[in-house]
Design goal:
It is a multi-pass membrane protein. Its main location: membrane. This protein is an alpha/beta fold. Among the domains are: 2-46, no CATH class; 111-138 and 149-257. Helices cover 40% and strands 18% of the residues. The chain has 6 helices and 8 strands; from the N terminus they run H-H-H-E-E-E-H-E-E-E-E-H-E-H. The chain has helices at residues 2-7, 16-24, 28-91, 135-140, 225-232, 264-286, and strands at 96-97, 112-119, 125-131, 151-161, 166-176, 194-201, 219-220, 238-241. The protein has a 5-stranded mixed beta barrel with strand order 2-4-5-8-6. The two termini are 52 Å apart. The model is unreliable at 1-26, 29-42 and 138-148 (pLDDT under 50).
């Protein structure tokens, strides 16, 4: 009976398509093609599952990496805020005598020092444009859309230290543009020997979009101590005179700004935001809801 049923073309169910092909006696070429296609059809899902699994875990690296970078920026922010606090505290420390060795100054930036000597007003340098630092006024104008800040310059004057026998550069402070010419502020040109307290500053590198210094026009946009020292014949030592050095008709001292680049909060928001967005997209694509939920 089994033979008769096979003779009329009924396949044996558990033998699959290949048994059916033999029963109906398909041409050899057709049977082979069918077998080849059938074999390929059983392999594709397995390869696809393997590819999806690799892609799933590979894409998970994106939110994981973003989270790690965001956490690292949190640590960097804490470090930067602590450093700013330390520098602000250093500015308020008791002044020490200016070291005789200029190499010691590399570790003393923002440290108050004492000097004694006299100015050489004939070789002034002008750092411009600048605005006057006035904490009281800045606090009053905080939150306003505009301010009364006037543009001007810092007056940098060679100062011969009689106790050390060297000439250094002193930022005496701010003057408005109309007072840059020393002829307009003769009253403030200090003569004779004076005691001075100033904040140690180091040389600067030119930042993007900041113009080049123009020694020929005596326009200085950033502190290039080597170039300034060469022009004036002073040592490449620079201090900001404190506010108490201000005299009537002269530059306004105390123009030291403790400025450190601090964009870590922006980076924190960027990385954590990227982590949240990519985590959502990953979960939406790869996490399957169980039936009935």
């Amino acid at each position: 009976m089994a033979r008769a049923r096979r003779g009329i073309g009924y396949p044996v169910l558990f033998e699959g398509f290949w048994s059916y092909a033999n029963v109906v006696k398909l041409p050899p070429g057709v049977a082979q093609r069918s077998s080849r296609y059938g074999s390929s059809a059983t392999e594709v899902p397995a390869a696809k599952v393997e590819d999806d699994s690799f892609l799933q875990w590979f894409l998970l690296l994106i939110p994981a990496t973003a989270f790690g970078l965001g956490t690292w920026q949190v640590q960097r922010l804490k470090w930067k805020l602590k450093l700013i606090e330390e520098l602000e505290a250093r500015v308020m420390a008791e002044p020490i005598p200016l070291p005789a060795d200029p190499l010691e100054l590399k570790s003393l930036e923002y440290r108050p020092v004492r000097v004694r000597g006299h100015f050489d007003h004939s070789r002034e340098l002008y750092m411009m444009p600048r605005t006057m630092m006035d904490p009281a006024r800045e606090a009053q104008e905080a939150g306003r859309l505009s301010s009364s800040t006037e543009s001007g310059a810092y007056v940098v004057t060679p100062f011969h230290c009689t106790d050390l026998g060297v000439t250094i550069l002193v930022n005496r402070g701010f003057v408005p543009m109309k007072k840059v010419n020393p002829e307009t502020r003769q009253k403030g040109q200090i003569a004779g020997e004076v005691d001075l307290v100033g904040i140690v500053r180091l040389t600067e590198t030119r930042k993007p979009f900041v113009p080049e210094n123009n020694p020929e026009k005596n326009h200085w946009h950033y502190r290039d101590l080597e170039a300034m020292a060469k022009i004036t014949g002073a040592e490449p030592v620079f201090i900001d005179a404190n506010f108490q050095s201000t005299v009537p008709g002269g530059p306004v001292g105390g123009q030291t700004r403790v400025t450190l680049r601090n964009e870590h909060m922006q980076y924190i928001l960027t990385w954590y935001g990227l982590c949240a967005a990519t985590s959502y997209l990953w979960a939406k694509k790869f996490l399957r809801r169980t039936p009935g939920r």
